[in-house]
Amino acid sequence: MVYAKWILRVLVWGGLAAWLHYTLPQHDVVRVVGTYEERQELGDWTRIFWSKPDKQSAGLINRDVQFIQAFDANENARVYRNEDTGWSWPPYFKFDTANLYTEASDLVSTKADPEWVVITHYGWRNEFFSAFPNAVGIKPVAGPDVTIIPWFNIIFLTLMVALFWAVYVRWRRFREARIDPVLNDVADSWDAAGDNITEKRGRFRAWLDTWRGKAR
Predict the structure, then answer these.
(1) How many CA atoms lie within 13 A of 192 on its CB side?
(2) What are the record keywords, sorted (predicted)?
(3) Burial class (CB in 10 A: 0-12, 13-18, 19+), 183
(4) Is 210 a domain residue?
């Protein structure tokens, strides 16, 4: 039972951490090397890694998707999709895919003469599932060593922890004031009932002993 509780806790907290890591904005300092558009098949379960299409194209199993190609300071390849999020989840309310595509195309640079940018995105890159993070913003920076402080994530996580703590404190107080007394009363009732049964059982045995010729 103890192992089951720990497994459940790990699954719940691990799932929450994965959801936050996928949803919250991340920042990569890269140099853009190209942009392109490619038709993607969206007919299987991996569709969850792509933005939800509008109502007119909801029934389509494929569509054209824009991509941004880049390299980081360690020459690791980075590929981002460029899709609107609209009013769906996650709530980035991105409607400027065409503008972002134009900005990224204008910031293309070479290895000999790099122009560094910070790309804000959410999501994961997974080659096996053909999953790409979705770029939501791009901004030129001075160089690859620039420090990006994730202020939004810091504030959001702080508020979330504060909310969880407030709910936990209030639940504990409610449990101590309302639930624990009821459980204690029930336990006391069971104990009293058990003592009563034990007492009656003792009297019954004493009565049987009188029939067996034993002393009372």
Answers:
(1) 6
(2) Membrane, Transmembrane, Transmembrane helix
(3) exposed
(4) no
60 within 8 A of 100, measured Cβ to Cβ = no
Distance CA 135, CA 138 (A): 8
Beta bridge partners of residue 30, listed in sequence order: 72, 117
Give residue-wise pLDDT tens across range 163-200.
Answer: 999 998 888 888 777 776 776 766 666 666 555 666 55
Residue 165 inside a domain? The answer is: no
- Phi, psi angles (nearest 5°) of residue 196: -65, -40
Contact 135, 68 (CB under 8 A): yes
Does residue 27 fall inside a structural domain? yes
Domain span including residue 134: 2-148
Question: For residues 118 and 121, what is the distance between their CA atoms, to the nearest angstrom?
Answer: 10
All residues at 6 or more sequence positions from 50 whose CB lies less than 8 Å from its CB, including other chains: 40, 42, 65, 81, 83
In sequence order, the β-bridge partners of residue 137 are 120
**Cβ-Cβ contacts under 8 Å for 72 (sequence gap 6 or more):** 28, 29, 30, 78, 144
